[in-house]
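Why should sequence recovery work at all? Because a backbone constrains its sequence more than one might expect. Tight turns favour small or flexible residues, buried strands favour hydrophobic ones, and helices have their own preferences. The token representation captures these environments compactly. In the example below, the structure is given first.
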């Protein structure tokens, strides 16, 4: 107990010393900063070098924009120093407060204690090595520790030779009371009133603990019922591999007739056993989707680790319904594409023949409108087919292809769009291969470029101008597609990759997008293990940056 108090005292005293040293240092820095401020006002910047040379502390003068104009530790190299505007103590000084902090200096690579003060035109900052203060504090604490060790040894000697024999009588008396079934009233301890009071405290503590144990048992029973009712399998395993708890939903994965609690003997599915084994070995929180062929069900397995109890928790969430819904959605896209494609092709053929045979201006006009709407339906069908194809094939088929071939095929796929809008599309590329070869999935990359360029043409209220820059580094190819379109509001950015999602303004303008183009792009990039970034400003256009990893 005494050692605990001594330890607490040393901690508190250490904090007290630090605070006092810091307060004293802060006061000293404040006075020095005021001296520098007065010197600057009276004699200008010429006095800085003289002050810096005679000061053991580091003095830094910082403009309000964060630029360092003087530092006595980095004289002549101030221009090479980073902006100090966002340093903690400088920010506090800029806000009208005195800045004070302890942190590692990026410039000197050592721990410093900083003080900052705002003058009319500058921030004056004074600092010193924090290690100096720490050494003084450590020395003081070390001396106190030696004193405490000496006192502890002295106390132990007294306890062994005197106090132990003195209190042995009281301990024997307490033993007599305890052996008397705890009836303190049956024995009157005239000279041990303090012992009687102590016993009454123990009895109250005992009754309180018994009540707490009853409450804990009730809470455990409630928790067990709640966990058992959750529609998710829960398995807990200890470090030795023994199962400590399973709920009702996880029983289907157990051989309940087996008496062993070892997870690899109790669990009847090899996938779960492998998942738990990896978790026990690596202690790495992970998530994995598994299809149980016997049950014909899909599950998400999640692992969680409770460090205090050295307990491993495995959650099994049934996502079969979600998978069925996705399959229904895929089938719907396939079916509607198949059903619409043939009649729309026939209608288009008849309308083209009709336009060629009849010269009446009105009928031609209406015929052209119908033809344009049919083209819209065709675009929808193409997008349906593309997104279904992407979902059914996750394979990235990389091979060497000439960049000029990619650009030409992209242009061919956009001819009608470009001609209808007089769009200007410029291609620039900077590749390492002298002959312009890149190793990509040609079909998927053309689809990405086609959809992003088309996006810039469709969502535009001016003559579209699109710039495509293609470059590479050691690990990935980068495709930057920038347009001068209507732009995308920041609130819309999180939704634009959702299927069938179209911005409200685009709907109102009857633009010809299907709401699938960016979803297709996102799915391809996801399968490619790539990245896509968006920068957009309303009325100024949008820039898509696509990074596709090399093989």
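From this structural description, the recovered sequence reads:
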């Amino acid at each position: 107990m005494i050692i605990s108090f001594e330890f607490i005292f040393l901690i508190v005293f250490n904090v007290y010393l630090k605070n006092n040293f810091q307060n004293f240092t802060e006061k000293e820095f404040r006075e020095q900063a005021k001296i520098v401020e007065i010197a600057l006002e009276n004699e200008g910047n010429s006095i800085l070098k003289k002050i810096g040379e005679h000061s053991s502390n580091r003095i830094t003068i910082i403009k309000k924009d964060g630029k360092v104009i003087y530092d006595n530790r980095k004289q002549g190299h101030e221009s090479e120093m980073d902006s100090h505007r966002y340093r903690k103590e400088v920010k506090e000084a800029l806000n009208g407060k005195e800045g004070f902090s302890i942190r590692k200096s990026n410039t000197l690579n050592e721990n410093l204690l900083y003080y900052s003060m705002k003058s009319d035109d500058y921030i004056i900052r004074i600092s010193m090595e924090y290690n100096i203060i720490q050494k003084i504090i450590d020395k003081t604490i070390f001396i106190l520790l030696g004193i405490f060790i000496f006192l502890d040894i002295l106390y132990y000697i007294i306890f062994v030779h005197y106090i132990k024999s003195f209190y042995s009588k009281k301990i024997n008396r307490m033993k007599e009371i305890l052996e008397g079934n705890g009836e303190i009233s049956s024995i009157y301890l005239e000279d041990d009133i303090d012992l009687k009071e102590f016993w009454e405290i123990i009895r109250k503590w005992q009754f309180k603990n018994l009540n707490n144990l009853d409450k804990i048992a009730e809470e455990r029973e409630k928790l067990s019922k709640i966990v058992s009712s959750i529609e998710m399998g829960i398995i807990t395993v200890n470090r030795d591999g023994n199962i400590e708890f399973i709920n009702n939903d996880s029983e289907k994965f157990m051989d309940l007739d087996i008496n062993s609690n070892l997870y690899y003997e109790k669990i009847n599915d090899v996938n779960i056993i492998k998942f738990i084994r990896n978790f026990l070995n690596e202690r790495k929180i992970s998530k994995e989707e598994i299809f149980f062929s016997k049950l014909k069900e899909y599950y998400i397995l999640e692992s969680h680790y409770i460090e205090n109890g050295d307990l491993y928790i495995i959650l099994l969430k049934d996502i079969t319904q979600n998978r069925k819904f996705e399959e229904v959605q895929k089938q719907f896209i396939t079916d509607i594409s198949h059903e619409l494609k043939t009649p729309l092709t026939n209608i288009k053929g008849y309308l083209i023949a009709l336009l060629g045979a009849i010269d009446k201006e009105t009928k031609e006009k209406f015929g052209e409108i119908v033809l344009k709407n049919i083209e819209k339906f065709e675009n929808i069908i193409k997008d349906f087919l593309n997104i279904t194809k992407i979902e059914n094939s996750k394979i990235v088929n990389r091979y060497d292809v000439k960049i000029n071939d990619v650009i030409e095929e992209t242009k061919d796929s956009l001819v009608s769009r470009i001609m209808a809008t007089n769009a200007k599309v410029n291609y620039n590329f900077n590749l390492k291969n002298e002959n312009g070869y890149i190793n990509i999935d040609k079909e998927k990359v053309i689809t990405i470029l086609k959809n992003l360029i088309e996006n810039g043409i469709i969502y535009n209220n001016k003559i579209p101008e699109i710039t495509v820059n293609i470059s590479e580094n050691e690990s990935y190819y980068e495709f930057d597609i920038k347009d001068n379109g209507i732009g995308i509001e920041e609130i819309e950015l999180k939704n634009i990759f959702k299927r069938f999602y179209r911005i409200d303004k685009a709907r109102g303008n009857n633009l010809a997008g299907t709401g699938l183009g960016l979803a297709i792009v996102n799915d391809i990039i996801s399968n490619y293990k790539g990245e896509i970034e968006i920068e957009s400003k309303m009325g100024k256009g949008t820039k898509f940056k696509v990074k596709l990893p090399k093989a």
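A few observations help interpret the result. Confidence is low (pLDDT under 50) at residues 505-512.
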